[in-house]
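Entry 12.
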Amino acid sequence: MKKNNLILCSAIKGLVSNHGQPMAGVIIQREIQWNLEQQPRIDSAVTDVRGCYSFSVVEGYCEMTFLEHLFHRPRIQQTLKLIQGEYAMLIFSGIRTHYLPPSGLEADYVQITSDLKNAIEVDPAQFKIKSIVKEYLAA
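Predicted 3D structure (tokens):
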């Protein structure tokens, strides 16, 4: 039985604004769905006075036989939503089909910058914000 401590997602540093003005006290919800777990992982952060929030690296643990490890195809979906009243605005959604290297992160962190002026109405009470996403590696 092979034991694995796997890195599922890089750390995130984010900034939320409304027409360039920082949004303080906004809830950002992160949901991670990993095909080795039945239930999604959900956590949240609240923006500070500068509109900034952060999430730490996410790790997963599993035990697999050699054959299970050989044929396993990971699927890790991560979504971030800005929750404001009854509205949930999608600010990021990504699917990873590989684990990050155990010897170090693929990116030290991911920077996500979101401005409500870039919100698009998907349907009534559902919006998506075109965000800027950048990965930063260790120097």
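Annotation: The mean pLDDT is 84. The chain is about 5% helix and 60% strand.
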